[in-house]
Specification:
CATH architecture of the largest domain: Alpha-Beta Horseshoe
Order of helices and strands: HHHEHEHEEEEEHEHEHEHEHEHE
Number of helices: 11
Structural class: alpha/beta
Radius of gyration: 26 Å
Strand content: 5-15%
Distance between the termini: 77 Å
Number of domains: 2
CATH class of the largest domain: Alpha Beta
């Protein structure tokens, strides 16, 4: 019986790398890689051993945006274990919560409590966390790396009731409580439907908060908005567009307490009338951007008052305010010559 011949050894072919980029030092290549997005860095790591080694450098993974990828829990966990470190400053991920076929299933969870704990331990210096379309009902806010967070975006995320638990009791110290987001200055809760009055009460513990986005949170009402206005006076950006329960009743508190406001977006508040707009005109003198588009109950009188009293306005959106006359629009253009006045809804 004939024996099989021994396997032939592969001959290594020497490749002479004499191109300009191959003669660059590691420091220069790292600087170039710093301009690439996540996908480009991952593809570059397959080029050669040197680039594979450089692509794993922690300095390239300080600001990570993987929202363009469809990632489940397993893939995200593998990615965090490979690239997560204390050098990471920002992380943006997209879940599958908008897919009706996967909502409620294990794949839609994306960030489990175990994965959150791993992110917390590996990325302890995380400052900016952006979560899009994530199902967070089985996760608590305290599971996330919150102590150094400055920005938290929960865009269209599925939350449980009373999920935004900011003020918690210190473990082992009965009766002592602390804020787990002491440095947060930007909170975006756009289209997070379960945000209600209790969550707004929790927001009052965020003493450093400057930017607050509650757009499309339809459970937000006057009482919750008044509570936030009274206890977080340092807010300079407020977006309550689509909060259809908000009426004129809360506008006086907003104008009285949020006197540092620079940007106020109140799109599609159909219950807002001239009375509420007048409160804003008389109290928010530092306002630079105001959006009252689709506020169909607003008339010429209050808009003229805005143009007269808010001299620092740089942008005013009054599109689809059907009660405004052409004479009113011409008058505010004359009163605010340096202000961009939007009278027609765009597709942006």
């Amino acid at each position: 019986m004939a024996l099989d011949p021994p396997p032939r050894k592969r001959r290594r072919i020497a490749v002479v790398q004499d191109t300009v980029i191959c003669r660059l030092s590691d420091d220069v290549l790292l600087h170039i890689f710093g301009y690439l997005d996540v996908l480009s860095v991952l593809r570059s790591s397959r080029t050669c051993r040197q680039w594979h080694r450089l692509a794993a450098d922690r300095t390239l993974w300080q600001h990570v945006d993987v929202t363009r990828f469809k990632m489940d829990t397993k893939r995200l966990w593998k990615f965090i274990r490979r690239h997560g470190s204390d050098k990471m400053k920002s992380l943006s991920v997209r879940g599958l919560a908008t897919d009706p076929a996967k909502l409620g299933k294990k794949k839609a969870v994306l960030i489990s409590s175990s994965l959150a704990a791993d992110i917390n331990s590996r990325c302890s210096n995380l400052e900016h966390l952006h979560l899009f379309n994530c199902d967070l009902r089985d996760l608590q806010l305290s599971n996330l790396p919150t102590m150094k967070l400055r920005t938290l975006h929960l865009h269209n995320c599925v939350l449980s009731a009373n999920w935004l638990q900011v003020d918690i009791e210190v473990e082992g110290r009965r009766g002592r409580r602390e804020c787990i987001l002491p440095h947060l200055n930007t909170l975006n809760l756009h289209q997070s439907a379960m945000i209600a009055r209790y969550d707004l009460i929790q927001i009052t513990y965020l003493s450093q908060l400057k930017h607050l986005d509650l757009s499309q949170c339809y459970r937000v009402d006057d009482q919750g908005l008044m509570t936030v206005s009274e206890h977080v006076p340092g807010i300079v950006y407020l977006n309550i567009s689509g909060c259809t329960r908000v009426t004129d009743a809360s506008m006086h508190r907003v104008g009285r307490h949020l006197n540092q406001l620079r940007v106020l977006e109140m799109k599609n508040l159909f219950r807002l009338t001239d009375l509420g707009i007048s409160c804003i005109a008389n109290m928010c003198h530092k306002l630079e951007v105001l959006d009252i588009s689709l506020c169909t109950a607003v008339s010429d009188a209050s808009v003229m008052e805005l143009a007269t009293k808010l001299s620092q306005l740089k942008k005013l959106n009054v599109s689809l305010c059907h009660q405004l006359s052409d004479n009113c629009l011409e008058s505010i253009s004359l009163l605010l010559p340096s202000c961009l006045i939007i009278t027609k809804m765009t597709t942006d």
